[in-house]
Amino acid sequence: MLLAAAIQPPPAGAAPAIARLLANHIVVRKAAHMMYLYHDQQLLAIYHVELGLNPVGQKEREDDFRTPEGHYRLEERNPRSLYFLSIQVSYPNGQDEARARRHHWAPGGEIMIHGTPNSPRYPAAYYATNDWTNGCIALSNSDMVELWMRTENDIPIDIYP
C-alpha cells in the first residue's frame, strides 16, 4: 500500500516547483538558434528560435535583416500583433545608437520576440526551419505562449553571436 501511494500522480493543480518560477533572465545564442530561460542560475526552459533573414553579425541599421547582439531588456507586450503574440526587445541601446550615428545610419527598431505570422504566406514547416524575420526572434506559437506566461517586462535578455 505504501508503494502504491508513492507512485500516485500529484493532486490536481499541483505542478513541479520549477514550472512555477518566472524567468528573470533570458539568453539567446544566435549560432545555435537557441533561447534559454533562467531564474537566477537555474535553467527553466530551452527553446528553438528562428532569426532575421541575415542572421550572422550584429544588427547595424534599419532593414539589414539582422538580429541584434548585446544586452537588452523586455519591454512592451502586444497580444494583438501581426504575429502570434509579441514582446518588444529594448533595441537599440546606447551602443547601437552610437554605432549607427557614426555611420549616419538609422539604427532600426521594433525588434520583437514573437510567434508565427497570423496570416502566414508559407507552410508551417518553413517558419520552423528557416530564418525568416526582419531581425526579430521567432518561436513556435506554443513556445511563445510559454515564454509569455513565464516572463515579465523589464527582465534582461542577452543576445550572443
Descriptors:
25% strand, globular, eight-stranded mixed β-sheet, L,D-transpeptidase catalytic domain-like, 161 residues, 8 strands, alpha+beta
Could you explain how this protein is built, in words?
This protein has helices spanning 2-6, 17-20, 94-102, 124-129, 141-150; strands at 25-29, 34-39, 42-48, 70-78, 86-89, 112-114, 137-138, 156-160. It has 161 residues and is an alpha+beta fold. The protein has one domain (23-160): L,D-transpeptidase catalytic domain-like, CATH 2.40.440. A hairpin with a 4-residue loop joins strand 1 and strand 2. The termini are far apart.
Indicate the CATH architecture: Beta Barrel
Q: Quaternary state, please?
A: single chain
**End-to-end separation:** 55 Å
Shape by Cα distribution: globular
